[in-house]
Amino acid sequence: RIFEVGRKRPPFKELGTVKRYYNAINDYNMRLMALSRSATGGSLVLDCNCGLGTDSAPQILNKIGTDIISINAQKDSEFISNPLSIKEADTRHMKALVLASPGSTGISMNRVGTMMRVFDETGEPITDEQLLCLFILYLKPKKVVVPMDVTWLIEDVFRGNVTVEVDSPFPDPDPEQMEFVVANPSVGPIHRMLVEKDADLTYYQGGFVFKGISWSPDAIMGSVLLSQFSSSNNMSEVLSKLPTYFSEKKTFRFSCSQADFARMMDANLPDINPMAVYEDKCWRVDMASGGFFVAFDKDQEDVVNIFAESNDKLYLISLLEVIDGLMEKCEAGQ
Fold this sequence. Notes:
Layout (H helix, E strand, L loop, with lengths): L23 H12 L7 E5 L9 H7 L3 E5 L16 H12 L5 E5 L6 E4 L8 H12 L3 E5 L4 H7 L20 E5 L3 H11 L3 E4 L2 E4 L8 H14 L2 H6 L5 E8 L4 H11 L7 E4 L2 E6 L2 E7 L6 E8 L2 H18 L4
Parallel strand pairs: 1-2, 1-3, 5-6, 5-7
Antiparallel strand pairs: 3-4, 7-8, 9-13, 10-11, 11-12, 12-13
Helix pairs in contact: 4-5, 9-10
C-alpha cells in the first residue's frame, strides 16, 4: 500500500531494518536438545505435512532415541496439508499407521510446526484439552496460563484434585509457588499474561507454549515431550483414568445495555456464593463442584452465552437453576 498514489512515504529515519537469520534452525534445534530431559523417546508415527517441522522434529526425535516413523518429512511448498481435525475422514490415514505399529502414538503437525493433532496407542485422536491434561501431569508446571472458558477438569488436574499416576522426570512443584492463571479467551490477553507471569505452560485454541523455547505455540517441542511421555506411560490408559465432566450450554437474551448487564453481574454474583470469580469482559465463576463461563455473543449485542460444567450430574442440574436465577436478576439491568 505504500506505493498507492498520493500516499506519503515515511522518512528514511523511521524505516526499520530487516536481517536474515541464517542459523535459526540450528540454534532452535540446539536449544530444544538442551531443554530435553534425559528421558528417551518412545515409538511415534510423525506426520510433518511437508512443512517447517521437517528440519527439526525427525532429527531431534532420533537423537533422543525415539523409534520414529516419519511421513511427509520433506519440504514441498505445493503439498496439500492434512487437516488437524478429529473428523473420521481426516484421521483415518494416521489411525491406520499407528495401528500398524503396535505401541506407537501418532502426531500430525501443521505446516509451520505450531499446532498438532495427537493420536493415542489405539489410533484415536485426543482432544486439545486432554492433551493439556497430559502436559500438566508430565511437566508438573508451577504456573499455567489458560483461557477463561477452559474446562474445569484442567484446573482440577493442575491442583491435584484428580489423582492420576504418571512417570515423569520433572520434580513436583512447591504448592506455594503454583499458580493457575485464567485470562480473557483471546490471543492478546493470553500472551500478555504468559509474559507477565513467566508461565511454564500456556494453552490457547489448541496451541501450547512452553517456557524457555518460544513465545508462540510449538508442536515440535510438544512432539518431543509426548515421545518421552510415551516411553514410560501409556497415553490411552492415563486418559481413561481422567474423570468425566458433564456440561451444558445456554443462551440468554437481555433487554438492557451490555454495560448495565455487566454491572448487574458484578452486583449479583456474590449472592450465589462462588468460590472465585474472574472478570475481564466476560466471567469465569468457580463453584464448589464445577463452575460456569459467561460471555457476550459476538454477533448479537443483547445475548450472552453460558457454558456450565461439573463432574456431578445432579450438581450440574442445580447449578443451571442457580444460573437461571442469576440471569433473571441481570436481564433488565436494574
